[in-house]
Specification:
Number of domains: 2
Number of helices: 8
Radius of gyration: 19 Å
Order of helices and strands: HHHHHHHH
Number of strands: 0
Largest sheet: none
Shape: elongated
Structural class: mainly alpha
Strand content: under 5%
Distance between the termini: 54 Å
Helix content: 55-70%
Length: 200
């Protein structure tokens, strides 16, 4: 594991970096992890426009931050692809980081993970049903695009945590190349899905 402040290699059981004195959280995880910062409104917008594809990118960026700051040997890509298996772990890490900075609006990682997995599974299950009923298709559409809801409390905790770590509340405003690509692909897919669902 490496110190998130100076990059010095430190022991898993140590509580403070021997080089810079930075505090290290419980179980060897740094309390200074800087997660992926984005406003909740942008998260909602991107998730809906990309039909949930952006959420994979969101998980990827946050696991990438964990790997960088905690020095873990993990694959952010596969943890993002299989978010149903790893979402709880990420939610818990964010909660613990925010809590270490006295965040008061704490959430239940278990309940949020359950809600996220439930929405994904129900949405995927409904998508396998062939139906030309507008009502059924509307319910399916609402379930599929609402998977961002369990991510909102996590993102608020992330933004609070990052503000304490960085000493600044400034959020990202510009678009990265990866975001632009995902949005373009997602919007095209979103339109195709709408066309195929409501105009059979």
């Amino acid at each position: 594991m490496h110190c998130s402040n100076c990059g010095t290699k430190i022991e898993e059981t140590t509580k403070f970096c021997q080089s810079c004195g930075k505090q290290v959280g419980a179980q060897g995880s740094s309390v200074a992890v800087e997660y992926y910062a984005i406003s909740p409104k942008r998260l909602v917008l991107f998730s809906i426009l990309t039909f949930g594809i952006y959420e994979i990118y969101w998980f990827y960026k946050n696991w990438q931050a964990v790997k960088k700051f905690e020095g873990q040997k993990i694959s952010p890509f596969w943890r993002a692809i299989f978010a149903v298996f790893f979402c709880y772990g990420l939610f818990k890490k964010v909660s613990e980081s925010a809590k270490s900075h006295n965040y008061r609006n704490l959430y239940s990682s278990g309940w949020l993970a359950t809600a996220y997995i439930f929405l994904l599974l129900v949405g995927n299950g409904l998508s396998t049903v062939d139906s030309y009923e507008i009502g059924f298709n509307l319910i399916w559409f609402i379930v599929v695009v609402s998977t961002f809801i369990p991510l909102l409390p996590v993102q608020k905790a992330i933004n609070f945590n990052n503000e304490k770590v960085k000493g600044s509340s400034e959020l990202k405003r510009d678009f990265s190349g990866g975001e632009v690509t995902l949005i373009v692909i997602g919007v095209l897919w979103f339109l195709l899905v709408l066309w195929g669902t409501f105009l059979p």
